[in-house]
Write a structure and sequence with these properties.
It is built from no helices and ten strands. The chain is an all-beta fold. The strands form two sheets. The protein has a six-stranded mixed beta sheet, with no helix packed on it. It has a four-stranded antiparallel beta sheet with strand order 1-3-8-7, with no helix packed on it.
């Protein structure tokens, strides 16, 4: 059974940094492209970034470009989301999910049903 578990969320001040982790069990993450998503209270879930399975090609939503970095460690079966220069509007629950290899793109990040095996999420709060 494919399972993803996110961790690393917490409370951080504006301008601060956090690193989220997405750990896989029951399958190998390097068989999939991985997406990061977030959902703020009262808002729809939105795509944040994705990373391809082999070449590690990354794509980002405009709202996080230059501040967030996605990486993967296939040996640890884990994908990371490094977040810097955090803003209050980054406050949300963050999720990871898988999609087929070769799909990672800004356009596919907008299609939630292209992704599956969603984790339970980790909460990020940016506040002073």
């Amino acid at each position: 059974q494919l399972q993803l578990v996110e961790s690393g969320g917490g409370l951080v001040q504006p301008g601060g940094s956090l690193r989220l982790s997405c750990a896989a069990s029951g399958f190998s993450l390097d068989d999939y492209d991985i997406g990061w998503f977030r959902q703020a209270p009262g808002k729809e879930r939105e795509g944040v970034s994705c990373i391809s399975n082999s070449a590690g090609i990354t794509n980002y939503a405009d709202s996080v470009k230059g501040r967030f970095t996605t990486s993967r460690d296939n040996a640890k079966n884990t994908v990371y989301l490094q977040m810097k220069s955090l803003k209050p509007e980054d406050t949300a629950d963050y999720y990871c999910a898988v999609t087929d290899p070769g799909r990672c793109s800004v356009l596919v990040l907008q299609v939630l049903n292209a992704f599956s095996s969603w984790g339970q999420g980790t909460q990020v709060t940016v506040s002073s």
